Each structure stands twice: as structure tokens, then as C-alpha cells.
Amino acid sequence: MPAELDDPWFARDHHGDLVPWRVESLVTPDYDSTGYQSYVADVMTFWLDRGVAGWRLDSAWSVPASFWRRVLTSAPTYATRRRCDHVGRREKGRHEG
User: Fold this and answer.
1) Where are the alpha helices (DSSP H) in 19-64?
2) CA separation for the pair 26, 38 (Å, rounded)
3) What is the pLDDT of residues 20-74, one digit of tens each?
4) What's the pTM?
5) Secondary structure class of 95 (helix, strand, coil)
6) Which of 25, 29, 61, 68 would you label with 37, given CA atoms 20 to 30 Å apart?
7) Which InterPro entries match (predicted)?
């Protein structure tokens, strides 16, 4: 197994196997991992500090709202420096299986 698949940021089932994310070739992140939350907050802050106005998250609706609350709390520049029209917007539709 490649070393990156041993990362604690990935969700595992009761057998310890990686949990696929909607597509067999992708794995589900462990949304409760504080390391993963910090990483996402750091990426958001990095790009906002460089003037990015926003980004597209096609599957944001499939991520638990509690994850976004924790990440946005960890990335204060996101919450205070930018107007966020769609934070927490969870649209389900034609892409659901």
C-alpha cells in the first residue's frame, strides 16, 4: 500500500479498509480528523491571502455541515475578509446516485 494511503485523514471501515467516496478510485476523507480540518483551512487561507475571490466545490453538499463549521472557524480570514454567498449551501440533484 502506498504510504499516502496510510494517512489518518482517510476514513476506514470496521475491517480497516479504505472507504470509497462515490467513485471506487477515490477514498473518503475522515471529516472528524483535526489534521484534515486544519489542512483544508490552511489551503483556504493560503489562496484567500493571495487574492482569490472564491472557488468551486462541486460536492460540498456531500460533506457534513459540521466539518464546514469547524473549518470555517479555523480559517478566520475566510469568514471575515470575504463575503460568502454560498457557505453551507447544500444542493442535491442530478449528480446523486
Assistant:
1) 34-49
2) 21
3) 666 666 677 888 988 889 888 888 888 888 888 777 776 777 888 899 888 888 7
4) 0.58
5) coil
6) 25
7) GH (IPR017853)
